[in-house]
Design goal:
Layout lengths: L4 E5 L4 E7 L3 H11 L10 E4 L2 E7 L2 E5 L3 H9 L6 E6 L4 E7 L3 H6 L16 E6 L2 E9 L2 E7 L3 H14 L12
Antiparallel strand pairs: 1-7, 2-5, 2-6, 3-4, 4-5, 7-10, 8-9, 9-10
């Protein structure tokens, strides 16, 4: 066996934010209304307390645990010149936590994303596949990952994790001492 914990987690409050061809001024105004700077490139994150804004792609962000007051400001004071779409998506997702010193090695069994901390640092977020399921993978700390996925795949991923833990790590994925 290896050092990894897999557990169900509460789904954070999630909103998708999309802006249609926003100017730099519109992006700055949105960041001001949310009281956090919008990250400019995919996989980057802005953080304030437990609220996070993850850049998913050009003009597309995942808002995690953003205060209702900030969302209200965005709804009522939306900047001119930028068509915005903010959608609450929490109900469609499930969440799992993978933690432990070998959690990233377990993820490597079903995901091709390089989760080494130099290439996927703390607070990074990426859309990828895990066990052939589309997920959002968020690195919360050096050895803790939050996985968000469509709730209809909960059973599949639970079974995949169970089977993967029982099978252990193949030699090719076994961390060398000190990793």
């Amino acid at each position: 066996m290896f050092d990894v914990i897999i557990e169900s987690a509460p789904v954070p409050v999630l909103h998708m934010l999309r802006a249609f061809k926003p100017s730099d001024d519109v992006l700055a105004r949105i960041g001001s209304l949310l009281a956090m700077e919008l990250p400019s490139s995919p996989s980057l994150c802005s953080r304030s307390g437990n609220a996070r804004i993850h850049a998913l792609g050009p003009s597309h962000w995942l808002l995690q645990n953003v205060a209702p007051a900030a969302l209200n400001r965005l709804a009522t004071d939306s900047p001119d010149g930028g068509v915005l779409d903010v959608t609450e998506v929490s109900a469609g997702y499930r969440a799992m936590l993978v933690s432990g010193t070998q959690g990233r090695w377990l993820l490597a069994k079903g995901c091709t994303l390089d989760t080494e901390v130099r290439t996927f640092p703390v607070d990074a977020c990426a859309g990828t596949l895990l066990a052939q399921v589309e997920i959002l993978l968020i690195r919360e700390s050096d050895d803790r990952f939050l996985i968000l996925f469509d709730r209809s795949f909960e059973r599949h991923l639970t079974q995949w994790f169970g089977q993967s833990v029982r099978m252990g790590l193949p030699d090719a994925l076994r961390p060398s001492p000190g990793q």
